[in-house]
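User: Please predict the structure of the protein below. I'd like the answer in structure-token form so I can feed it into my own downstream comparison script.

Assistant: Understood. Taking the following sequence of 171 residues as input:
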Amino acid sequence: MRILISLFFLLLYFSCFGQQESKLKDDISEKDLNTINLYRTKIIQYINPNPDSAIFYSNKIKILSENLNYRKGIVDANYMLGQCQKRLQQNDSAIVYFKKSLDLSNNINYEKGKARAYNSIGRTYYLLGKMEASIDACKKAINLTQKFDDEGNLILADSHLALATAYARQN
């Protein structure tokens, strides 16, 4: 079951960023974009069997993005580091990374990054038993999906599912 959930989050991740690649590549060179995409592929390959390797490649994305001042790449890296921590059941650490992703998304007005971060924060809070915080984060994610093209409505659907789970666990 955990593998299926992890695969769902990775599909969510790539749907969120994969559709935006052509718009984001103007910010960095084609070579750097290809390098980041290679690291993303490695993260997908390693997040379940070897999360430490996924963390290694997430950090490589973060370092390269910081060197290039590629802020959406930094948002991406923090999100993936959060997913890796969640996979390791280090939920408090995952929240820290998701909040870093959210803070930078707020600074650069990156609505999709905000929605994705709130979605992950909501999912992680309900794992920590913080239902009110989970419900609040899920509602914010749902509201944000109205501000951008949520390709396939994946963030919207997943946020509704997380919201329903938090409500069910609250009672």
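That's the full token string. The chain has a mean pLDDT of 88.
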